[in-house]
Design a protein that fits this description.
Elements: H1 4-15, E1 20-23, E2 29-34, H2 40-49, H3 52-59, H4 68-74, E3 82-91, E4 94-105, E5 110-117, H5 126-140, E6 145-151, H6 155-163, E7 167-170, E8 176-182
Parallel strand pairs: 5-6
Antiparallel strand pairs: 1-2, 2-3, 3-4, 4-5, 6-8, 7-8
């Protein structure tokens, strides 16, 4: 009989996520990795650098920066129930965060997800790559669906989610669209 700690260790091994470098449509490299608490100041700088529209689309408010509690939540990963990713690029000797994505358990077998990409890095495939990594990781962790809310006038994100086979439904609030991506661990690429 498998012990609870052995089961947790097995799940941790299955859901481990190594950093990976991807190439965007325009050839720029971006490293996708798990966010850490040490990223808080870089994440804050990233959020401050987003356009007002991008901040509004992600946070549903015209925030200028994140509170300490918000920073902690977007840089926290506690697999399998929570995963926070950053997309990072090297500029000379400095690195810079150009995207963030995360999911957190919200229901018995589902999770809420969110993605935001720096304005200068949008429409290069980074958002779809991040959603794909989140979905793969969530499916391996036994999560059957990821979902979230998107502002009804955020057409670029709604079009992306449609291409990624997400279901779009109206919400009680006519300003937002509820999106759901069903996950099936059997369909994951090895």
């Amino acid at each position: 009989m498998e012990t609870a700690s052995a089961a947790r260790a097995d799940l941790a091994n299955k859901t481990r996520l190594a950093a990976r470098t991807i190439r965007l449509k325009d050839g720029r490299p971006v490293t996708l990795r798990v966010a850490a608490s040490e990223d808080a100041s870089a994440v804050q700088q990233f959020v401050r650098g987003l356009s007002l529209r991008s901040r509004h689309n992600r946070f549903f408010l015209p925030v200028r920066e994140l509170s300490p509690d918000q920073l902690e939540r977007v840089t926290r990963s506690r697999p399998p129930g929570e995963l926070a990713l950053v997309g990072e690029t090297a500029e000379g000797v400095q690195s810079r965060i150009v995207a963030m994505a995360q999911y957190a358990m919200s229901e018995s077998h589902g999770a809420e997800f969110a993605v935001v990409v720096d304005d200068a890095w949008q429409r290069q495939g980074l958002g779809s790559q991040l959603i794909g990594v989140l979905a793969d990781h969530a499916a391996r962790a036994g999560i059957t669906a990821i979902g979230g809310l998107v502002l009804a006038d955020n057409w670029p994100m709604l079009e992306l989610l449609t291409r990624l086979d997400c279901e779009l439904d109206s919400d009680n609030d006519w300003h937002v669209i509820r999106v759901v991506k069903r996950l099936d661990a059997r369909e994951l690429a090895v």
